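Quick illustration, no need to memorize.
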Amino acid sequence: MTTTSVLPERDYPVDWVDLVAVDLDGTLLGGVPGYGIHPAALQAMKQARRHGIQFAIVTGRPYEFIENLVEEYEVLESSVSAIVAEERFIYIKDKGLFRPDLEYNNWTLSLEQSLLEVMQGFVVSQWPYLTKLDPDVIRLDAEEMRKGWVELVFSTRELAKLAVEKMEATIPPTLTLIRNVRNVGVRGSKIGKGPALKQLVERLGLSPENVLSIGDSENDLSMLDTDQFGFQAGTVSNADDEIKQFVLKNQGWVASKEFGHGVAELITNVLTLRQE
């Protein structure tokens, strides 16, 4: 899929972006040796921070991974003001330290833990089909009590996608399926990057329409859903075609470059608009 324009034709206020919320794997991370961050992205983030734009990392990765990443890159340490980890836990920088939003984090954990038996029962009911579809599918059951949700790992992205399509037909309304490449999470229906980012934006005292949300995969869909949450959507050229189509449908931006280089392109467009 190709795009002819990164910027949809509409009027943009010069200061319309206060926060850029960016996914890690496949978006900010990747496309360079060592699975790091493209130098262009780091430079663009540094320049944007000078213009008062904040950054939030929104990912399925655990907090400890993100904390180490922020410490590794000086630009992240000075630019990132908030984190969403495991697609649900919020951390906001205060006096140089990332502090958890205990009220929201405890609520999300309690909610998913209360639904864990429902999740497990649903997966058991689907297991005959899933193992027939993919004999090598793995259920990470050793992690379930700690995480509070069920995660399945399929052999390929295509098999994971087929499994989601089948399971969606019978999943209870209290649950949802979140796919990230080969991994499928059975989660609480009120959990996800979109709801967590909405909560974060409220905590920061910002307006959703002043947030640019950038992601590349199906687990990013909720935070790219402008109609539901109000964020402006953006994606990179290596994203799945369905993600690009979803972003364009939401009048968002599709970068012509991949991974962090694409993130840099989107940030540069924001800065260009501020200077016009």
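The CA atoms of residues 139 and 152 lie 5 Å apart.
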